[in-house]
Amino acid sequence: MKVFISQETIRSRLQDVLEKECGQKVRQCYQCGKCSAGCPISFEMDYLPNQIIRMIQLGMEKKVLSSRTIWLCASCQVCTARCPREIDIAEIMDFLRRRAYKKQILPKGEIGIPLFNKIFLKNIESFGRLYEMGLIAMFNLLSGKFFKDFSIAPKMFLKQKIGILPPKVKNKNEVKKIFKKSGF
Amino acid sequence: MRYAYYPGCSLHSTAKEYDLSAKEVARSLGIELMEIPDWICCGATPAHITMNLLSIALPVKNLLKAKSMGSYEVVACCAACFNRLKVANAFMETRDEDRRKVEDIVGEPYRGEVKVRHFLDVLANQFGLKNLKEKVARQLTGLKVACYYGCLLTRPKDITGFDDLEEPHLMDDMMKAIGVEPVNWPYKTECCGASFSLSRTDIVLRLSRDILQMASDEGAQAIVVACPLCQSNLDLRQGMVNKKYNTNFNIPILYFTQVLGLALGIEAKKLGFEKHIVSPLSLLKECSRRLNVGYIPTKREP
Amino acid sequence: MKIGVFVCHCGTNISATVDVEEAAAAIGKLQNVKLSVTYRYMCSAPGQELIKKAVREESLDRIVIASCSPALHEKTFRKCAEEAGINPYLIEIANIREHCSWVHKEKKEATRKAIELVKIAVAKVARNKPLKKTYVPIEKKVLIIGGGISGVQSAIDISFAKYPAVIVEREPSIGGKMAQFDKTFPTLDCAACILTPKMVTVSQNKYVTIHTYSEIESVTGHVGDFTVKIRKKARSVDLDKCTGCGACFAKCPVKVDSEFDMRLGKRKAIYVPFPQAVPNVPVIDREHCLWFQKQTCGACKKICPFGAINYEMPDEIIEEKFGAIIVATGFTQFDHSVYGEYGYGKYKDVITGLHFERMANSSGPTGGRIIRPSDGKEAQDVVFIQCVGSRDEQKGVPYCSRVCCMYTAKHALLLKEHNKDAQAYVFYIDIRAAGKNYEEFVKKVQDEYGAIYLRGRVSRIFEKKGKLIVRGADTLSGSQIEIKADLVVLATGLIAQGDAVELAQMLHIPYDQNKLFTEAHPKLAPAETITSGIFLTGACQSPKDIPDTVATASAASVKALGLLIQGELEREPLIAKVNTDLCSGCKACVIACPFRAIEMKEIEDKKLKRKRNAAQVIEGVCTGCGNCTAVCRMAAIDLEGFSDKQIMGEIEAL
């Protein structure tokens, strides 16, 4: 990985923004690597969790927000539980994902996950509870994998694990209002 | 013991058997679980990844609904819902400025007054393991299980707080109390891949394979879980794991409420075993046959 | 009264902001001020000459110096006054630098303030009383608490000056942690070989008394006159009769985990902790001895040819007086059982640095073989994890334990020497090798001994199929690493002893949030405490390696000797004094005094014609802090040099 970091980048104070908005003292990280050591998804990530934190310390916002790592984080919280400096790395990953959504920066080659999240939320907004059939159908459609999970679909259906019809929530407007007021 | 009950989306669909068995167990033990009327999705992982305030507002709305029922204690079975409800409470108790924003979204004031417990916590700690032991009506001796806690039940410690962070043992203690042997295995809290089930199934397959392999290596015949996503990843996708990695796992993934229900003498057909993809029926029949005491009826028997 | 006022320019430090000439002129107009002049550098030799000349020519009897903080030159000016023939306590210093010119910018206001400050000083000095220094006698004996390398070195230094030293050590033998080490870095000297000659030196030295298996019971008194009660725990073996023949422990049927061998080996219920123990006299562990627990056996007594075994021996409490105390209590290892991710201390094959030392030691429990404690097999793949408990705010201590990088490198080297097919993996965050020849040593281990250094912490260790699975990271290459190890050695940090706080409170010395004893000044006085007469050495003050420990041991000895050779200790007279006529005996001051410098004494009340209790200040201990004057309801206790009258004078002058 060839990178050149300019002085302006290093002084750009991304870690101050983070500190202010989600209260995590990124500057305290001394790169011990315990988070990366315990992360179950490390094997698929393009940057390890400690590298993401390092890049935040160095102000490399674009690289961080366009990485696949932040989307591959499973929010399993092992990093947070074990960090010796008590930094909530899972919270930082959340913050980065939300920032990426806001800035509309999407990871190259990993678009499935941000897409999935959006579809999930749209699903709840419409139905109040998760309508699995709708979720799977929409996701398969939009991600281009039309026949994914086709083999298990009939089994799930027969065992009444997923229904054809959406769930019954009376006050759907209530839900829509919450979404609207949150700025979705 | 009365609680407001928050099932969450999965328990009404892909984890139906968890809902059924939990209700059966509650009924058998005299615990009243009153489902929160018109509850809505808690947002689970997609919400907190996308929008912070939304991810708090959705659980808070449900807690307010519980409050309007007159209940100040909510029980959840789904580990993700449990975690989100507790996070929402912690948020509303401590973050003054942000709390006002959430209160504005849900339209009501809320300060974390409705307490949230996981069903495992209720049964093990509040009902008591000793009391459970006394209610055992069916022996499941010879059944060796690996208790799998997953991520959201135990972490972060200051949110979940009811069991040990690195070596949780409540489920293991419960299994021991009802006569089932829990194996000692190191993957109790390893991640299964959680919400990547649809978007990155390959990651789920790899992590699930590791978990199934470790459980099998330690001699477990089944894995006992307390989270619908863990169950679906390990059960639903077990066939795919076998296909991809050339393994031949045949490990039923049971909810602890199902195992507990059996031990309490509830009929097997009421506990939703037929809904599993990897069927546990032959294993359970084997266990009861070994003892020649009691039997577990299948759907086909008259 | 003829007061002389001397205003210093202090170069431009004062005169740049304060108009010193104007100030001197204004002060000169005050009542009682005979002379008011300025000079560029009052503290210099010509400046002091100026003062002395003025005293002679103008017959001054009190002096006010307007200059920098008294913290810097009060002693200088007192000496100057004394040489000029004035009592050194009839001078006052007005701080017009740190309190005025250095903190203000506006010249007019600063000058006005400076004048006010000098006015106060003039008012105070007018009410000063001539005081005399006090002297306390010094008991010429030093107590050394702890018999590790630091205590032993202190004893050697003190006895070299032909002064008596007493070592009180709580283990059955002196030697401390160093006796447990195998080899020391960077020279790879055998620890016992360099330590035992020192141990023998102190044991044979006529100036040194060693009390082993003993603890400090209480400490009262003050510098020069400490009264210490020492509990000599019952050894059950007579120190004079025993010859160290070893017949008793050979016969003893009880086997107990040996603490010295970190529970990797066994000892008997009657035992000598290690072969080179000083004194070479066994001790009976009464909690495991069959005679004390079940009233059976008694084999040792029967077989002892010298009748040295005495089951009825009680604890003995002795009382001695000392002039100075050196605290050399050392450290203990951080307990890694708080790390759930490393197994909560349950895994037998996850051991600490001291365990490795005992295994590597050829006279240790494994005969010098590096093995897995669980099954006794030779360890081939060994993972060393640095910074366990150290640099960890979450579960451990926030500081760096200083020696772990070095001893881990040493362990990686020893592993290869004992087992040439073994492979060492070291997980580190930084390598701290700041001492002499230390960096070269670490490089040698990395280059010549094939140790693989991986930069990252370890997230988890668990057991599988007889191996330990270690999940770590290497941040330099950006990878996650998994190693199947036979043995994991945790470089656990050095922390304060479990009872450090109790000892500190007994001695009245301060300690910090990590329970390490606090030195008088972190830079300039690392071997003393703020409590006069009590000195610190070794790891009880902060984690350190052997060279630094020996250095601080000698430093503390010199400080202690400095006290002893004086015979008498000079004390400043700026202390509290009780007017017994006013004292009601309520003891509020006794309770308020943080230094226990006030005691109640019976006095003869001539007016009431009976005896009563009144407070009395112990001159040697009082530091003049003034707490007592604040609580006294009768205004019976006052500070010399800062009396109520003087302070009122200052306030009225404003």
Mean pLDDT of chain A: 88
Instruction: Say which CATH homologous superfamily of the largest domain in chain C is assigned.
Output: FAD/NAD(P)-binding domain
What does the oligomeric state look like here?
A: heterotrimer
Q: Would you state the CATH class of the largest domain in chain C?
A: Alpha Beta
- How many individual domains of chain A? 2
Looking at the structure, the CATH topology of the largest domain in chain C is: FAD/NAD(P)-binding domain
User: Pairing-aware structural class of the strands and helices of chain C?
Assistant: alpha/beta
Residue stretches of chain A low in confidence (pLDDT < 50, at least 5 long) are: none
Q: Which spans of chain C have pLDDT < 50 for at least 5 consecutive residues?
A: none
What is the overall shape of chain A?
A: elongated
Number of helices of chain C: 18
Strand content of chain C: 25-35%
Main sheet of chain C: which strands, in order across?
10-7-6-18-29
What string gives the helices and strands of chain A in order? HHHHHHHHHHHH
How would you describe the overall organization of this protein?
The complex is a heterotrimer of chains A (184), B (302) and C (654). By secondary structure, chain A is an all-alpha fold. Chain A has 2 domains: 11-102, no CATH class; 112-182, no CATH class. Chain A has 12 helices and no strands. Chain A has helices at residues 7-10, 14-22, 34-38, 49-57, 61-65, 69-72, 78-82, 89-102, 112-127, 132-143, 153-158, 172-182. Chain B is of the alpha/beta class. Chain B folds into 2 domains: 2-119, Up-down Bundle (Glutathione S-transferase Yfyf (Class Pi), Chain A, domain 2); 128-291, Rossmann fold, CATH 3.40.50.11810. In chain B, 49% of the residues lie in helices and 10% in strands. Chain B has helices spanning 16-29, 44-50, 52-68, 79-94, 96-106, 119-134, 157-160, 170-177, 196-199, 201-217, 228-235, 238-245, 256-263, 281-291; strands at 2-6, 32-35, 73-76, 115-118, 144-148, 181-182, 222-225, 253-255. A 4-stranded parallel β-sheet of chain B has the order 2-1-3-4, sandwiched between helices. Chain B is globular, with a radius of gyration of 19 Å. Chain B starts with a strand and ends in an 11-residue tail after the last helix. Chain C folds into 4 domains: 3-126, Rossmann fold, CATH 3.40.50; 142-330 and 516-564, FAD/NAD(P)-binding domain; 332-495, FAD/NAD(P)-binding domain, CATH 3.50.50.60; 576-653, 2-Layer Sandwich (Alpha-Beta Plaits), CATH 3.30.70. Chain C is built from 18 helices and 34 strands. Chain C has a 5-stranded parallel β-sheet, covered by helices on one side. Chain C has a 5-stranded parallel β-sheet with strand order 20-27-21-22-23. In chain C, α3 links the parallel β3 and β4 (91-95). In chain C, α6 (149-160) packs across α7 and α11 (353-360) runs parallel beside α12. The longest helix of chain C has 20 residues, at 107-126. The chains are: A mainly alpha (184), B alpha/beta (302), C alpha/beta (654). Chains in contact: A-B, A-C, B-C. The interface between A and C is medium-sized, with 22 and 24 residues.
